[in-house]
Design brief:
The protein is built from four helices and eleven strands; from the N terminus they run ααββββββααβββββ. By secondary structure, the chain is α+β, with helices and mostly antiparallel strands. Strand 2 and strand 3 form a beta hairpin. Helices cover 25% and strands 32% of the residues. It has a seven-stranded antiparallel sheet, covered by helices on one side.
Length: 209
């Protein structure tokens, strides 16, 4: 009886954790089956009317965000899925929703990498200022994907070669591109090379534990 209760609790917990993901009207993406490490749900982003607009799934280590140099040994990739949409009225009629583009995916990936980074030796009191400065710079970079700071990288998405905008820095790397499924993919990582990665639709989001 006890073992049955525990077995029932696991899937129930997974469904609860995936609730925001399950309410999305677009497919979620993660690394394909070539990645054999741990996978986890992170967070979803919603509009004021509760519509899910984007979300992230983690692969590998969970960032520690500590100023002690340990993050240099971390190996992780986070995949951001963004629903592609034009500017439109919000569902509750209170305003407009901004258009989402591949730049949106690049921006979310870049800010995700920054929030997972604490440069070694940086004082606690200065990290907030550093983060603000870097976030503003990331916004400008994401708005200029054809600029000299970005290169291009071809990676498979559902088995189809897809062009991504790619940027590497001392903190890790960021990439962003669009899929045939009507969503944009952003990704960021550290310790694992972006070259050789592949992305695919997540068939069962509740399996991400």
């Amino acid at each position: 009886m006890e073992s049955t209760s525990r077995a029932e609790a696991v899937p129930a917990a997974r469904w609860a954790a995936a609730d925001g993901y399950l309410s999305a009207t677009f497919p979620w993406y993660g690394l394909d089956e070539a990645f054999t490490g741990p996978r986890r749900l992170m967070q979803v982003g919603m509009a004021a009317d509760g519509t899910v607009q984007h979300g992230s799934t983690g692969h590998g280590d969970e960032p520690t965000i500590r100023p002690d140099g340990t993050q240099e040994r971390e190996r992780f990739v986070v995949v951001v899925t963004v629903a592609a949409s034009p500017e439109q009225r919000s569902g509750d009629g209170t305003g407009t929703l901004e258009a989402t583009t591949v730049s949106s995916a690049a921006w979310l990936a870049a800010t995700g990498l920054l929030s997972s980074t604490w440069p070694e030796g940086l004082d606690h009191a200065l990290r907030s200022e550093w983060l603000d400065q870097q976030t503003e710079a990331a916004w400008e970079l994401a708005d200029d994907l054809d600029g000299p700071d970005w290169s291009t990288l071809s990676l498979p998405v559902d088995g189809v070669p897809t062009t991504f905008h790619y940027l590497e820095s001392e903190f890790g790397w960021v990439l962003a591109g669009s899929t045939r499924a009507g969503v944009h993919i952003g990704a960021y990582g550290r310790g694992l090379s972006a070259y050789g990665l592949g992305f695919s639709v997540i068939q069962d989001i509740t399996a991400y534990g």
